[in-house]
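Please describe the entry underneath.
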Amino acid sequence: MKAVSLTKEIASTSYPGRGIVLGRSADGSKAVIAYFIMGRSENSRNRIFAETEDGIKTEAFDPSKLVDPSLIIYAPVRVLGNKTIVTNGDQTDTIYDLMNQQLTFEQALRTREFEPDEPNYTPRISGIVKCSGGKMNYAMSILKSADGDPSCCERYTFTYDSPLAGKGRFIHTYMGDGNPLPSFEGEPTLVEIGDEDIDAFTESVWNALDEDNKVSLFVRYIDIATNTAESRIINKNK
């Protein structure tokens, strides 16, 4: 598989939905994480990312306009020791709680399935990055319906040991816009992670997202040697 431009891949569709990027910086020193959310409805667009003690959470920008919080208010990012969890739903808490009880990432997700938002049955996408002893690895997961049939949950986990510098993987909920929305297909896309600093990288990803549908973006760079991190948040609603 040949690596493609991350920004071109993001910009190739007006509605990839929610997306996770995990990878390693071009100089090999940083683990790179990006998570974005988009929205077509007023309820989905009425959101911001806010920092928490161990990550971020989604909040209603205008609480008076919040209709149904069940699938849009959650903690996308949490940190458990030397592991950073990032997901598109409340399965973040499931992974955190069950891994804290010594279950694996994959075992924790066995207790969940795709979202119950008929007819889309939005996939649950999840990722986890571990930095320890100057090394890193990461994994990604997608739980989705069988081509829109909710009677079957398809479960895929992809693991990447000692990931290559300058490369990453990109997974998102939808292949593009539609009604119903078509679920992501295949292995997470191999993308190029350049040598940009965190601010330039954040700006390039944000600018690649469709102007009408983008809502919020979170980016984190983790120093693999020290496990120290710096993060950025951009919210369209201000």
